[in-house]
Write a structure and sequence with these properties.
binds protoporphyrin IX containing FE; about 50% helix; five-stranded mixed β-sheet; heme binding; three-stranded antiparallel β-sheet; alpha+beta; single chain; Cyt_P450_sf
Length: about 475
Amino acid sequence: RQHDASKIPEPKKLPLIGNMYQLFGLSDNIFSTIQTLNKKYSIYKISHIFTSTIQICNPKDAQIFLSTKQHIKKSLMYRWMQDWLGTGLLTSEDSKWHYRRKLLTPAFHFNILQEFFKVFDEHSQLLVEKLEEECDKPYVDIFSLVSNFTLHIICETAMGIKLDESKKSMREYVNAAQKIGTVLFRRMRRPWLYWNFFHFVSSNKREELLILKTLHDFTTSVIAEQEKSFKNLDVVEYNETDGNFVAKKRLALLDLLMTLKYNGSKINDEGIREEVDTFMFEGHDTTAIAVSFAFMLIANHDEVQNKILDEIQEVTNNFNQKIRFEHLSKLRYLEMVIKETLRLYPSVPAIGRKTTEDIYTSTGYFIPKDTYVGVQIYSIHHNDEYFPNAEKFDPDRFLPENCQNRHPYTYIPFSAGPRNCIGQRFAIMELKMIIASVVMNFKLIPIDTQSSITISSNLTIKTTDGIKVKFEKRSFI
Ligand code: HEM
């Protein structure tokens, strides 16, 4: 065992600015700079005068940090996100996180998801209608179109409100949600902005405040709208053992939070705002990204597209029935396509933690308590050692027999362990419904390819120039 954190490999350092300078430069190529480092080392340290982070690019160490209840504290980036998300489920720690996680888990129970199906269906059909209007165009920039639909879906399901289609604030919200990531990333790359004072007086902060206003105005209007129609049912009881209030009936997210607020629990207006901001963002952006990359990959792989279509044909009795809730679990090949899309393009490419006790890595490096750690999901997914010919899109990697011998932490698009994604099943259902509805109605024609796009760094994975796909109406259905 090597008992020394200083033994962890470090890319070349300079005085004061450490090796952080490696990440300076244009935001477009930062992503590839990070990936080059990630390919070179399976674990390494990146640092400057104010802070250092251990980057983990291998599944064994990812398991050490993610699988236990021990390391649920988050890294610096999540603290910077608190002006936006408060301490909602994604950014909270310790007892607050435990309480909220326990409280909100039933809001994504199977029975609730089943009720959401009609919303997934309705918006998938509306997306099909919208794409029909786009068939004449040389291509569709898919993310900006789909994110509108996924925002509607999260509002109508988890928040329980129907958005007004013409609402200008909706588009503004989606744009602001893209911009906030850029502002947060800019801070990460400028060491002097780690100092709250310097950040407070910077132009970055001024930009952040404007963006936050747009984001918060939108979520505030969603809460106000839901509150107008909210009916307070007597479904809350006090749990003597843990001193918390619980709902006796399963409720969707915002209904649950409102019910608890009106019945004297710990949830107040601020708590509601935190969770609405958190779920609104996590719930629409991640899924829109996944749909966009899935369309690009399907368009570029005819054999995959045909297999998806064959499976839908079989499940819907030769396209004679509409896709129903019970069909979703039968769309097994489509599920493999979604998994392979999330391997190549995990919507959340990296996550951060802070150690809560001294720890040894799988190769014996010592990491002391209170160290920031980054788990590099994208680079674990792109490692040829775990996924031979890793850049190749091959859904068969997820055939049961092909998964057996893989370390479980080689594939972690939803993270893993107690702080994994609470919306995982929601996301898979929504993706299945949207992709099946679109492939059933259109032939997807490639415009962008895996090599034509440039991935850019943001909180979630983005490209510098959108993702372009062409849609051609199928005539035989
Ligand atoms: C393809 C879609 C999605 C992907 C790839 C994804 C991925 C992730 C990942 C990697 C995390 C861990 C973040 C971290 O530890 O910092 C996470 C957490 C989370 N996700 Fe998702 N997510 C998706 C969809 C959703 C949806 C649809 C929702 C809401 C309905 C959602 C809500 C959340 C929340 C609230 C957390 C924080 C959980 C906690 O800390 O207890 N996600 N997600």
